[in-house]
Design a protein that fits this description.
This protein has one domain (about 15-150): 3-Layer(aba) Sandwich (Rossmann fold), CATH 3.40.50.2020. Helix content is about 20%, strand content about 35%. It contains three helices and ten strands. Bound molecules: guanosine-5'-monophosphate.
Length: about 180
């Protein structure tokens, strides 16, 4: 807790380890009621969600599978522009309840890409879970089913989230000090 410095920026403590863990317990109980009988496949979106996803599944007291995937964009043909794909999804999700686990949903562009990639895959249901949600930035219509914390439009790091690759390895969340 306190202040940390990552490269040229300073960050102050914002959401404590205990608050994060309390919210995760509540989310896990809500997920159990909702999908606890469905043998869901959790899909952690790399890189940012790896800590949240691992804490969340350990609080989920029901049978589940987990995989981690990366959303990659590449330039397609000139007419189609940028194309997205999910790297690492090597199993069929046909008929499955899929729980997409994100670290943060900001504008929603990433979730929109993931939704487009998953919705024709034959999944029975797609559930979106995010650690952090920025309601003032979100501009998409895809409902985010479970959010641990709503936060204002401020840049945060820690607990999996990075600044230029730094700061992921903390157990609480920090927000930027504007100076
Ligand atoms: P989107 O705008 O597509 O919802 O969010 C895109 C990505 O931007 C997120 O997955 C995350 O990697 C990054 N991002 C958005 N807001 C923040 C933030 O406050 N801190 C960090 N570290 N990354 C963020």
């Amino acid at each position: 807790m306190g202040i940390i410095k990552l490269q040229d920026k300073r960050f102050e403590s914002y959401i404590s380890k205990d608050r994060i863990q309390e919210r995760i317990k509540v989310l896990a109980e809500e997920l159990k009621k909702d999908i606890g009988d469905d043998k869901p496949l959790f899909l952690g979106i790399l890189n940012g969600s790896f800590i949240f996803a691992s804490d969340l599944i350990r609080q989920c007291d029901f049978p589940l599978n987990i995989s981690f995937v990366k959303v990659a964009s590449y330039l397609g043909t000139k007419s189609s522009g940028s194309v997205s794909q999910l790297i690492g999804l090597n199993e069929s999700i046909l008929g499955k309840t899929v729980v997409v686990v994100e670290d943060i949903v900001d504008t929603g562009k990433t979730i929109e890409k993931i939704d487009a990639l998953l919705k024709n895959s034959g999944a029975k249901r797609i559930v979106y879970v995010t650690l952090l949600f920025k309601p003032d930035a979100y501009s998409k219509n895809i409902p985010i089913d479970y959010k641990a914390f709503d936060i204002p439009n401020e840049f945060v790091v820690g607990y999996g989230l990075d600044y230029n690759g730094w700061g992921r390895n903390t157990d609480c969340i920090y927000k930027i000090v504007e100076e």
